[in-house]
Amino acid sequence: MDTVDRWLATRTFHHGQFSEVGELMRQKEKLGLSLSLCIPTLDEAATIGAVVSRLHAALRDQVPLLDEIAVIDSGSTDRTLELAAAAGASVYRAADILPDIVPHRGKGENLWKALYQLKGDILIFIDADITNIHPRFVTGLVGPLLRHPEVGYVKSFYERPHCRHGEECLLGGGRVTEILIRPLFSLYFPELTSFIQPLAGEYAARRSVLEHLSFPVGYGVETAHLVDLHALHGLGIFAQTDMGQRCHRRRSNSELGRMAFAILQVLERRLRAHGHRRGSTEGDGLLRQFGQYNGTYRQETHCIAEPERPPMGEVEAYQRLRVCSPLSHDRRSKVADIAIDRPAAVVES
User: Fold this and answer.
1) pTM across the whole model
2) How far apart (Å, rounded) are the C-alpha atoms in residues 45 and 296?
3) What is the fold, at CATH topology level, of the domain defined by 3-346?
4) pLDDT digits (tens, 9 = 90+) for 146-179
5) What secondary structure letter does DSSP report for 219?
6) Domain ranges across the chain
């Protein structure tokens, strides 16, 4: 049995294996660990209240598996923060965390700031647009971390039903994964094709793992984590859990094009860092798409920069807060080579 087959056989779980919340609670207490849930948001008023209230009721009120539930927000202009707070979450604006560092706006920025703001030994990240939210999205992620000390990072995977009015509900989705990520992983990082949903927004990791990772500020964060952790540790640090079905809003092709462009910038840096590409193909940072207006096509340009935050363990404010030991020389060199376009803005003033 080769490495991939062995990993798939031993590190692919089903959420039902971790459905006994009381047992997870006992294991958590035995290990002396704390768990923090982070929900990154931007204008998620339609779903955030239900997401927080369901998880709070099951995993804080009934059984306190979670030590904190927090929303880290990118600057919502709707009632996201109000509804999240009313449902029981602690709410933070990302721009208010580490205020001496010039802020970026994006999902990865929120997750990076969560690592500073939240207290848990294990952090769980859940997207805010899930319409069939269930405690399994948390328990299925933390279960492998509580039961298997060698596992440091757990991804979710699922079926994604998409329905149109009057049509049979079909299973689909994962367009960026299947058209972009899986082909590129197959060429350059073949072991990473073992992940059924490499871009899944639901995952959990140990703080000790996350604080040594660079964080792209936008949609490239999931891809960067997989590539960087695989380079440092191989498949052995990962696990993945089947969550059944996940229902969420369906994004337009234009939105997905912008997401793909951000991810490509992150992959390009890593391909060069790992010796797959030579020279620079960064271009001008503009994505060109076409939109239709009054029956005619017009070219649109989108400036989609994807700078990266350094490993949180290198940030002086975090070192003071956590009394965090610096990276070893070998680990520092491998991680630092990735963030070659790290902006000066991330240096603490």
Assistant:
1) 0.83
2) 34
3) Spore Coat Polysaccharide Biosynthesis Protein SpsA; Chain A (3.90.550)
4) 999 999 999 999 987 764 444 444 444 478 988 8
5) T
6) 3-346
